[in-house]
């Protein structure tokens, strides 16, 4: 008798932290959509309206119209960064956005993993992995998905001193290997609201500046261009100034 | 509006307190031992899933009608969802949603006491599922998908939902709590004893973690527990606790093994989609799928027998 073939690799073969990744999941389940909608509502209509007053300077529209695949990079100093970027992106573009998130933190327990998978659409980055699986996964996503805005923090970790540090190579590798342009964002005041080590965010104002789209280039060029753009908004923000 | 339902019953309160006390003692021991070896780590993770699930389930089952009924239906839907993920038809929306809808109708039929509708549903679903290939103009893997949907419905929409029938009885929640405690207790005993001291394995290929010694010890201790906590049952008669103890151990054990056969055939250990710790919803309810209908009919027969005697 011929054996039945169960097409269950997504659930049976993959580790839980990879099951939601869109190259493995054919569709987003209804429950995930509901959770995402509730999360978006909370973020946009409550948290970033009444608790933290979020202001977006610039527009995502030009990027949306021209670039279905995009790397979004920003300075990183707070846990507010990824969610404030998500909140700044209009809801109609949300289906495109994914955030690269450290596996050892965002997938370290069931609560965080559930939140990371279903709310911030996190792509797990194994910072301790030696075989480059995280880089391969991101490159595969950028190559195979027709629409993806991947949020990356090229400094690699949250800054503790308030300055923007030199970028790690990853972002230029992704951009050059997959020919994906890069959108610059700059987050102003996130560090003061929720610095590394603090238990939770303080109420206050946070501004997301939306910059220009940079063509793929080596990391030094990306860093220099990003620095030049941020200096037009606020000076003295870089460690190597 | 009164929402506290069974929570106002002192027996229910005491039982839930007992369950929490048991989980706390077990949790403290496992927390200390969790790093000792892999077995303890696994036990800790399985415990964690119960640590989160048990209080939530007790809370909702103790509320007023229709919350307990809706809770049981939700558990059945989540288990069915996991079954669809395990078997790989989760993405086939027409099959999956047809079966979900039939499960919901079955639940509504039980709640509204339209038993003829409930009895008709498996046949209706059977007929309807075979129309889906015509609708999709497709034949590949259709027999497989139809069969899996029917199995899913029979497991979760038919067998497991007998819990809903039991809920309709006076103090039905106490019958449910009693059988769930016994079933889980038996499983804990057979697994831990077999792991530590088990020598004779009676079905090595299907259930390598279960030994004959564990089975007998589990049966004996479950019968003792059934007698010890028999005051949870609303009926004070020896036949009821003896029947419940036997069903929880023997039928519950068979249910667990039968689900093991399915898992091994599919090649999935567990999906563990939403329950914290280790294992998913199916891991929590697999024994009850087989226990629920037999428990229900046994109690019905016993009631009839003692009423007409």
Description:
The complex is a heterodimer of chains A (241) and B (309). Chain A is of the alpha/beta class and 241 residues long. In chain A, 39% of the residues lie in helices and 19% in strands. Chain A has helices at 9-12, 30-51, 61-66, 80-88, 103-106, 110-118, 133-144, 170-178, 190-193, 219-233; strands at residues 52-57, 69-74, 97-102, 122-125, 148-152, 182-188, 204-214. In chain A, strands 1-7-6-2-5-3-4 form a seven-stranded mixed sheet, with helices on both faces. In chain A, helix 2 crosses helix 4 and helix 7 packs parallel to helix 8. The longest helix of chain A is centred in the first third of the chain and has 22 residues, at 30-51. Chain A is globular. The mean pLDDT of chain A is 87. Chain B has 309 residues and is mostly helical. Chain B has a domain at 71-168. Chain B has twelve helices and no strands. In chain B, helix 9 packs across helix 11 (238-266) and helix 10 runs antiparallel to helix 11. Chain B starts with 9 loop residues before the first helix and ends with a helix. Classes of the chains: A alpha/beta (241), B mainly alpha (309).
Summary, kept brief:
With 241 residues, chain A is an alpha/beta fold.
Brief descriptors of the model:
heterodimer; A: 241 residues; alpha/beta; 7 strands; 19% strand; B: 309 residues; mainly alpha; 75% helix; globular
Termini separation of chain B (Å)? 40 Å
How many helices of chain B? The count is 12
Looking at the structure, what is the overall shape of chain A? globular
Number of strands of chain B: 0
The total strand number of chain A stands at 7
Helix/sheet category of chain A: alpha/beta
